[in-house]
Amino acid sequence: MLIERKEFQEVDGSVGYIESVFNSRNVLKTTYFSNIQRLYIAFNRGHTYSYGNVDPEQYQEFEEAESQGKFFHKKINGNKMHPARKEFTLYPNEVKDLNQIVEDNKPEDDDD
To answer: Does the structure show a pLDDT above 90 at 60?
Structure first.
């Protein structure tokens, strides 16, 4: 479930990239660059991978999915159309800060 979404604008007013935080068992944060169709996914342990050829419509479907993890595994992960590469690992304090955002914004009735 999408918890927080921020759009960062280019000088010309277009969207440069989107950062989103999720309440998900697998996906913690994404950064999406529509101009190069590259999606960066930080998983719950902080390992961050990027996936190519993710068009804006597919990213929107990912954000709106009932389960980002299920959508990722079904439509992006292992798909030859979306070549992957390991990018970096978030520092433990970054993972902690993102988890705090999730905790602070969880719906009242969410037991996860």
So the answer is: yes
What pairs with residue 33 in β-bridges? 38
46 and 24 in contact (C-beta within 8 Å)?
Answer: no
Does the pTM surpass 0.90? The reply is yes
Whether residue 9 contacts residue 15, with contact meaning beta carbons closer than 8 Å, is answered with yes
C-alpha to C-alpha distance for 61 and 32, rounded to whole angstroms: 13
Tokens representing 108 are: 């009242």
Domain membership flag for residue 60:
yes
Beta-ladder partners of 22: 2
Residue recorded with tokens 């529509």? 34
Could you tell me if 32 and 59 are in contact, meaning their C-beta atoms sit under 8 angstroms apart? Answer: yes
Q: Taking Cα atoms as reference points, which of 11, 14, 61, 110 lies closest to residue 30?
A: 61
Q: What domain range includes position 68? A: 2-105
